[in-house]
TrEMBL record:
Residues 1-32 form the signal peptide. The active site is at H329 (proton donor/acceptor), C348 (nucleophile). GO terms for molecular function: carboxypeptidase activity; transferase activity. Residues 195-376 form the L,D-TPase catalytic domain. Pathway: Cell wall biogenesis; peptidoglycan biosynthesis. It comes from Hyphomicrobium nitrativorans NL23. This is L,D-TPase catalytic domain-containing protein. Keywords: Cell shape, Cell wall biogenesis/degradation, Peptidoglycan synthesis, Signal, Transferase.
């Protein structure tokens, strides 16, 4: 099936995950690669290079640039969207679809209701076919709906799509009104920026914007619901190439120590398996075999993982001042980047194709072109580089907005901040 988009938070950062690490320490033979792969999710494989599923995963990993989320023009466009959705609500909203899942070419009574639903929200022309077959025209309209609602555009009436379609018109209107306030505040700042970076957390995407144009858009992994990525405004000032990971206190307390205790109880050593080093209060490196994880002593140690292919920060870390101790970084595995739901970190932002963002940010630093950035990735050379000019950064929480071309966008209310029904948070 051809895929077309033309129509269309020291506190936290990386999570070990008890279930994942528990499976590793019980496996015995798991390598460091296995550790990080398991931690960060499935990495794909097992599919034909030409399969639909792989094509959709690649689409998730490499989104089109599109239009900037924080464009000043989006304020008026969102006001227009509010008027449109007010009219939809006044007219009675839209039908609630049953839970039956339908694939392209299949026949179902739910398809006729889908036609009515998409005609009301505008993805499908009104007065068209009443067929109960999920046919080509309807499939393409459904892909448009999916793409503008942050879903994988597979053209299927699947569980996530049904849930998104069944968010009421009243709740979508409420989201637009809530986000208009957020947009109005943020765009007062971005309109004065020649270039900036925005992380829209609900979209799990990063935009590099120059002169109100998206230069590159990057798939991201954001904070999970119980360790959310914060909303913040800062300036990117430095990059660490092939950085050392210094485990933050929350990760040490909530993840490392409990899981190291579980490993020790099984006669295994977590630090050996992960390549993490422990240091006492005087900075002396400790023998991992002599650490008693059942005692209180490990809570007073610091922990670092050297740079390398298994380091969870990957080959570059992007720094900006903030009170939440979060940062943006690469990842040694890319499995989650191909998933549609990417809320899996402890607050920091993992960025796909981060080398493109890195050399764009370093564009005014002499000698830091694309080739040099890529060489740092290849060689593993350590370097800390300050930007010649700091670049404004926004971590935003925008779940509903319209762009100047009239397209209305919705995303999951990931952290339940819009005050709408739970269905809008969980699809």
């Amino acid at each position: 099936m051809a895929i077309s988009m033309q129509a269309i938070r020291g506190r936290r950062c990386l999570r070990f995950g008890a279930a994942v690490l528990g499976s590793i320490v019980s496996a015995g033979a798991a390598s460091a690669d296995d550790f990080w792969t398991l931690q960060f999710g499935p990495t794909g494989g097992g599919y034909s290079a030409v399969s639909e599923r792989q094509a959709l995963r690649e689409l998730e990993r490499n989104p089109e640039p599109g239009l900037p989320t924080l464009s000043p023009a989006n304020v008026k466009a969102t006001r227009d969207a509010i008027q449109r959705y007010t009219e939809i609500v006044q007219a009675g909203g839209w039908p609630t679809l049953p839970g039956e899942q339908v694939k392209p070419g299949e026949q179902s009574f739910a398809v006729v209701m889908l036609r009515d639903r998409l005609a009301i929200s505008g993805e499908l022309a009104a007065g068209g076919s009443r067929s109960d077959v999920l046919d080509g025209t309807l499939v393409e309209a459904l892909k448009v709906y999916q793409s503008t609602n942050g879903l994988t555009p597979n053209g299927r009436l699947d569980r996530a799509t049904i849930a998104a379609l069944n968010v009421s018109a009243e709740d979508r209107l409420k989201q637009l009104k809530t986000n208009l306030s957020r947009l109005s505040t943020l765009t007062q700042t971005t309109k004065s920026h020649r270039r900036y970076v925005v992380v829209n957390v609900p979209s799990a995407q990063v935009e590099a914007v120059a002169l109100n144009r998206v230069i590159s858009r990057h798939t991201a992994v954001v904070g999970m619901k119980d360790r959310p990525t914060p909303v913040l405004r800062s300036n990117i000032y430095e990059m660490n190439f092939n950085p050392i990971w210094r485990l933050p206190p929350t990760v040490i307390r909530e993840d490392l120590i409990p899981q190291a205790r579980a490993a020790q109880a099984k006669g295994e050593n977590l630090l050996v398996k992960t390549g993490i080093n422990a240091y006492d209060g005087n900075g002396r490196k400790l023998d991992p075999a002599k650490i008693d994880w059942s005692s209180a002593a490990p809570r007073g140690y610091s922990y670092r993982q050297p740079a390398g292919k298994d380091n969870p920060l990957g080959f570059v870390k992007i720094n900006f001042a903030n009170s939440e101790s979060v940062y943006m970084h690469d990842s040694p595995t890319d499995g989650l980047f191909g998933q549609n739901i990417r809320a899996a970190s402890s607050g920091c932002i993992r960025v796909h194709n981060i080398e493109r963002l890195a050399y764009w940010l370093l564009g005014q630093n002499d000698g830091w072109d694309q080739a040099r950035v890529e060489k740092m990735k290849e060689t593993g050379e350590r370097a800390d580089v300050r930007l010649a000019s700091q670049v404004p950064l926004h971590f935003a929480y925008i779940t509903a907005w319209a762009t100047e071309d009239g397209t209305i966008q919705f995303r999951r209310d990931l952290y339940n901040r819009d005050g709408v029904a739970e269905i809008a948070t969980s699809y």
